[in-house]
Amino acid sequence: MAFKLLIINPGSTSTKIGVYEDTNPILVETLRHSSEEIGRFQAIYDQFNFRKEVILNVLKQKNFDVNTLDAIVGRGGLLKSIEGGTYAINEAMLEDLRIGIQGQHA
Known about the structure:
By secondary structure, the chain is an alpha+beta fold. The chain has a domain at about 5-75: ATPase, nucleotide binding domain (Nucleotidyltransferase, domain 5). It is built from three helices and four strands; from the N terminus they run βββααβα. The chain has a four-stranded mixed β-sheet with strand order 3-2-1-4, covered by helices on one side. The longest helix has 14 residues, at about 50-60.
């Protein structure tokens, strides 16, 4: 059984996404954001809903059903030091990102 993954890599002026079945790419896109779009937000965390909407719109335009995803993987954010590995997101992690406990990073 193949696993379907959405990979998200937010950057300063773009959000790169990829949908994979195991290691096979189904969809790979670089979503560019103007300085005006990004400039509306005071903190990086404030961009969350904007980027989420952009990603969901692209997936919808490509007729991709997000309900078929097995996992979503993201890069970015600064958390308290934790051992490397795979984690399920919890409220403590989200709060650390909201307040920028270790600083801010797209």
